[in-house]
Amino acid sequence: MTKSVFDRRSFLKFGAVGALAAMAPGAFANVRERSLSFYNLHTDESLKTVYWADGAYIPESLAAINHHFRDYRSGEVREIHPRLLDVLCELRMKLETTARIELISGYRSAATNAMLRNQSDGVAQHSLHVEGMAADIRIPARSLALLRKTAMSVKAGGVGYYPASQFVHIDVGRVRTW
Fold first, then answer.
1. 58/132 Cα distance (integer angstroms)
2. What is the pTM of this model?
3. For the domain with range 2-177, which CATH number is right: 3.30.565.10, 3.40.50.970, 3.40.50.150, 3.30.1380.10?
4. Tens of pLDDT along 33-62?
């Protein structure tokens, strides 16, 4: 079952935000396309896609990313916030790599989040994973410490560092670190 959090107006708003980001100075000032490459560790699936071009997000690419980020336990899909994708793209640019991002956890259903929360103190009750606004990742071409440091420099949301589990949590909530 696909759960939609964006209506047409919201989608158009994000397209406008993307267009403004393309015109503004910063990470995307001279970028005509934004692309991402992922490997989902739990499903053994790879995805490489241009998700933004000509000043707008590409709906077909967003749908493919939503599917790739699905809750692998339940199969449930939710729209992934475009700002999260932009942060991941910016991280790859700042890290000067085109290496694929290894996805440990993207979207999590409320049921999956509750199950994980019962098993670990490290899972937030109101996790941004449930909102499609967070990802647990690593980029094998770069160290976890460098990924964390770079994510913190972007100041786009939360950054959690889990070296024992070999991932960095990235979200587009309020700026914070742990």
1. 17
2. 0.83
3. 3.30.1380.10
4. 999 999 999 999 999 999 999 999 999 999
